[in-house]
Design goal:
This protein has 224 residues and is an alpha+beta fold. 57% of the residues lie in helices and 10% in strands.
Amino acid sequence: MYNNKEKAIQLRKLGKSYNEITKALNVPKSTLSTWLKDIIIPTKIKEKILKNAQKVWAKNITAYNKKRAFLIKEKWQSFENKTSKDIKKLSLEKLKIIGTALYWAEGHKKARWTAMFCNSDPDMIQLIMRFFREVCLISEEKFKPQVQIHLNVSEKTAKKYWSKISYLPLNQFRKTLKQVTKSSKGVRPKNTLPYGVFRIHISDVELVHKIKGWTKGLIKQSEK
């Protein structure tokens, strides 16, 4: 029967690494270094050992990077959760300022009779809908929602999604816009805008000018 030293020599000649031999025989690497230092290994076996070592190294680096990325993400997620508490419940006055700023940035400003807001961020849509409902006091029947989708997006799924986000019934939605841009050439990854873009139209000339007035006020109050 072979003793551990003889087994270690055999395993080494078969191309096993020190880690593999240590695990198999429960022998410290320091001991293996003494036993195996004079062992002559064929070139092919050396190449095999090197390749195996490279695979292990690559696997360890990948695992390390994944763990590091996870810890970094977890750290900043914790930080964001903490800083989110800096924002208190929105008063109507604050909601008016935020909604006006959002419309200033993302709303359609050239129309004279209709207010229109368009975005693909569901959180932003929910916020602007609060602005329209709670600050502007728009009646529900005036909201005319519309979905703009790419050809690989299900119209039915998109409309149901935005109906849930906006709290507007499906029968109130306008005809869906299906658009293929020249830049996309009809091809778009499925994870890009999976529910398309949501548009909200409100035919109300007074609202249009009210928001324009609030925007002017916001600009004026931001001046030094």
